[in-house]
Amino acid sequence: MKMVFVDTGAFYAAINRNDENHREATAIFNSATEDGWRLITSNFVVAETHALILARMGRELAVAWLRSIPANIIRVSKADEEKAKRIIFGYRDKEFSFCDATSFALIERLRIKEAMAFDRHFGQYGKFGLLRE
Asked: With a cut of 70, which residues of the chain have pLDDT below it?
């Protein structure tokens, strides 16, 4: 079964029809459903996505999204957090957020090969593929 990590930008683009990546995100989520992919995200991404939806689209949509998150949530471990710090410290020319760096650590720990992400930092890290329509 294909495992794919889902980042905040993909979740947000899928629910916001005005987002520049909406069509692509929707198509990828549809492919995931049709082909039975196992979608994975982290508890940190859930918090970040909820905050983004709440701020930009309102409480009602933020709560609805929380009730039906279309992915399995994996908790970021202490080891993931430590690796995230090493990633941030090691990539001095990049501005990776702690949330993104924990995602990279979790992706590597779970040996996930691809991510649904529109965030340029996922491409800059470069240790896994990015799904595109």
From this structure: 133
Q: Which of 2, 7, 1, 25 is nearest to 106 (CA)?
A: 7
* pLDDT tens profile 51-79: 999 999 999 999 999 999 999 999 999 99
Give Cβ neighbours of residue 128 (< 8 Å, ≥ 6 apart). 5, 107, 108, 112, 113, 114, 115, 122
Asked whether the whole model's pTM tops 0.90, one would answer yes
Return the pLDDT at 132.
80
Structural domain spans, the chain: 3-130
CATH code for the part of the protein at 3-130: 3.40.50.1010
H or E stretch including 27? helix 22-35
Q: What is the DSSP letter of 110?
A: T
* Helix, coil or strand: residue 35: helix
